[in-house]
Design the sequence.
């Protein structure tokens, strides 16, 4: 069982829709991450939150809007996405933001943009 | 610019034998390295890590070796089991000031362990 829970597991949306991806962890971790993984490619970092504050934004388009309402929750708000945004979106958490902190991943949300 | 490379897309091994997965990196600012295992329809699972100040770290059947001068690391699995069949990702993390905590992943190696 994964300790990082992501919902929904699958999401299909049109280019004009607004939807949100949710991530929850109860390990007391203070760093949370969003990654994007395209088919047959490695995960690529999108955002990092440390102590509920945005720490890293890897030049992600503004149609992706992250939010960290508290230390256990991380959301990714989606609006006006493009077909090329179809991918697996992975959430991860670690004790704190550090090079030596293993990140623990959820099972992801598979997003399809029509 | 691929900073972490896993040059073998796949590896096939007999049960009970050793599996050796390799990874090369180019960025000398990386100072922590991790291996993750991924099953289909699941997220990556952390396996083992090594700091750049060490050259070996063991955890049960898994051992990671780091050769800093060659910018090369490897994961040894002994003995290999059919349940080890998965995609293995090498990842690297940098020191403060270089997107601290950011993981850069290799392309992955598909390991198949035959009974």
Sequence:
């Amino acid at each position: 069982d994964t300790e990082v829970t992501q919902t929904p597991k699958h999401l299909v949306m049109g280019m004009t829709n607004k939807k949100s991806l949710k991530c929850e962890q109860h390990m007391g971790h203070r760093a949370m991450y969003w990654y994007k993984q395209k088919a047959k490619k490695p995960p690529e970092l999108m955002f990092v939150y440390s102590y509920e504050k945005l720490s890293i934004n890897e030049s992600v388009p503004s149609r992706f809007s992250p939010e960290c309402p508290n230390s256990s929750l991380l959301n990714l708000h989606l609006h006006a996405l493009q077909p090329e945004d179809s991918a697996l979106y992975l959430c991860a958490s670690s004790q704190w933001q550090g090079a030596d902190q293993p990140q623990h991943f959820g099972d992801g949300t598979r997003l399809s943009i029509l | 610019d691929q900073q972490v490379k896993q040059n073998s897309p796949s590896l096939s091994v007999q049960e009970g034998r050793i599996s050796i997965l390799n990874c090369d990196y180019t960025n000398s600012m990386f100072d922590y390295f991790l291996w993750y295992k991924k099953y289909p329809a699941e997220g990556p699972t952390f396996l083992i890590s090594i700091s750049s100040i060490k050259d070996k770290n063991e955890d049960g059947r898994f051992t990671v070796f780091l050769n800093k001068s060659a910018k090369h690391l490897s994961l040894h699995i002994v003995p290999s089991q059919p349940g080890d069949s998965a995609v293995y990702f090498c990842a690297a993390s940098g020191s403060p000031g270089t997107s601290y905590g950011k993981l850069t992943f290799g392309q992955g190696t598909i390991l198949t362990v035959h009974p």
Summary: The mean pLDDT of chain B is 93. The two ends of chain B are 38 Å apart (CA to CA). Chain B has no helices and eleven strands.
